[in-house]
Write a sequence for this structure.
């Protein structure tokens, strides 16, 4: 098979592991810088060009699209879909998961456990909004933030009001969420491939820090998840329409709650913590499922 990997940096751990896994299984893998791809959106023959070269047919494309290039990255991926290339994750599913508010609304509609979450637009509604999610302490998040950036824990009502006012003053879109005390600064990353949790790790925040992201200095360890957590993770990925996803859960007093569903989860932390060859599982999934034109959206949406 010919597999294209959309990635800004071929030296990233996840990108290198996917190339290695594909080649070990006898496939041809090529890394394409997402922002160097350009497109001819023709009526009968859509094409993708790369650094002066007209790209031929690929059997599958693996999108490793960073949050900062979501719009252009999903446009490139959609072009591959219109050419009949099988996408590991579809463009519509990636766009859906990147919109934090939309993804929470979709999960809520399907009955997935979530932290109490609120959103408002006017400063006059801030006080009531904070009370609505259970009061302080509460978590305030930028809708566009990733890797723990733009996430603030406000310890008091006054602090929460000040932070929300500051973000609103900058015209930033924010969510306010209840703070899950009992999680103790830890979350669970469930790695879903093809509707199954293939690996899971516990991420623990540093002392004095509540964000458990590995990019923020958190530590990762192997964890045994419960059947309810497994079911929640697989359902969340399915609702988003993602074949591969990193589902972040918190253990609350009322069961597992989903914090985020990541459409381009990193492989380094999960492979190191669990010892599992997740990259090989992803390529194996592509081998089983990749067929010409097998995409639900066909470039729509």
């Amino acid at each position: 098979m010919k597999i294209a990997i959309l990635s800004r940096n071929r030296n990233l751990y996840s990108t290198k592991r996917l190339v290695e896994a594909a080649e070990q299984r006898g496939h041809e893998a090529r890394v394409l810088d997402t922002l160097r791809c350009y497109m001819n959106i023709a009526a009968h023959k859509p094409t993708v060009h790369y650094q002066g070269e007209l790209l031929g047919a690929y059997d599958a494309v693996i999108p490793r699209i960073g949050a900062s290039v979501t719009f252009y990255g999903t446009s490139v991926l959609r072009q591959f879909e219109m050419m009949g290339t099988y996408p590991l994750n579809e463009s519509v599913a990636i766009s859906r998961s990147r919109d934090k508010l939309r993804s929470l609304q979709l999960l809520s509609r399907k009955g997935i456990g979530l932290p109490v979450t609120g959103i408002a637009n006017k400063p006059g509604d801030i006080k009531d909004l904070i009370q609505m999610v259970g009061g302080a302490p509460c978590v305030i998040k930028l809708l566009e933030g990733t890797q723990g950036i733009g996430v603030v824990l406000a310890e008091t009502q006054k602090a929460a009001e000040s932070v929300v006012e500051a973000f609103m003053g900058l015209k930033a879109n924010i969510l306010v969420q209840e703070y899950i005390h009992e999680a103790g600064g830890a979350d669970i990353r469930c790695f879903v491939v093809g509707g199954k949790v293939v690996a899971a790790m516990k991420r623990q925040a540093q002392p004095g820090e509540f964000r458990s992201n590995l990019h923020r200095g958190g530590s990762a360890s192997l964890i045994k998840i419960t059947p309810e957590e497994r079911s929640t993770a697989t359902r969340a990925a399915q609702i988003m329409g993602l074949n591969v996803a990193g589902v972040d859960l918190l253990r609350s007093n009322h069961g597992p709650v989903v914090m985020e569903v990541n459409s381009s989860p990193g492989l380094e932390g999960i492979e190191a913590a669990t010892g599992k060859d997740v990259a090989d599982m992803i390529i194996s999934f592509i081998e089983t499922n990749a067929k010409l034109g097998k995409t639900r959206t066909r470039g729509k949406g």
Summary: The radius of gyration is 20 Å. DSSP finds nine helices and 16 strands in the chain. The longest helix spans residues 227-240. The chain has three domains: 2-95+285-289, 98-113+182-276, 117-179.
